[in-house]
Amino acid sequence: MPVIKKVESGKLLCLEGLGGDEDVQAARSQLLTYVNEKRISVSGEPFTLYYDDPDQLDFNQAHFGVALALAGETFGDGEIVVVTQTVMKVASAGHSGDRQALGATLKDLQQWAREHQFKPQGALRLYYRPAGPDQSGGWLDRVAELQLPVVKTA
């Protein structure tokens, strides 16, 4: 069941790219290498921003950014930039299992947002969380959270 969450303001270290999963993974690796080499203080795990219109988003060929929340101060370097995020509300939904079904989860999240009088505003965020037990007592291999920035329409 989707929920509305508040995302706090802060600075993000970000690397943009185009493509699918392999390109996202390569960008994530490049960003993490940069953070480790420069000894940059970060908070949390990397997440992916998808800049394409959610109605047109194709996870296999997307304009994306891999980001990390900064815990300290730093400057970007070439492709890796520091961006400021403002406080925002997001409609959030969990997704487990097959990556190919992310599109369906996104559509369900968009529908829920519309039904609750919210409209998308900003880049979709995709977080992968540590796996845990599923409802049948087995273990999930991939757990994701989609966060769609929204504003109230009424």
Folded structure, characterized:
The model has no long low-confidence stretch (mean pLDDT 88). This protein has 154 residues and is an alpha+beta fold. It has a single domain, classed as Multidrug-efflux Transporter 1 Regulator Bmrr, Chain A (Alpha-Beta Barrel), CATH 3.20.80.10. Helix content is 21%, strand content 44%. The chain starts with a strand and ends with a strand. Strands 1, 2, 3, 4, 5, 6, 7, 8 and 9 form a 9-stranded antiparallel β-sheet that branches. The chain is globular, with a radius of gyration of 16 Å. It is built from 2 helices and 9 strands, in the order ββαββββαβββ.
Largest sheet: 9 strands, antiparallel
The CATH superfamily title? Regulatory factor, effector binding domain
Structural class by helix and strand composition: alpha+beta
Average pLDDT confidence is: 88
CATH topology: Multidrug-efflux Transporter 1 Regulator Bmrr, Chain A
- Radius of gyration, whole Å: 16 Å
Unreliable spans: none
Give the N-terminus to C-terminus distance in angstroms.
22 Å
Shape: globular
SSE topology string: EEHEEEEHEEE
What's the domain count?
1
Strand content: 35-45%
Number of strands: 9
Query: What is the architecture at the second tier of CATH?
Result: Alpha-Beta Barrel
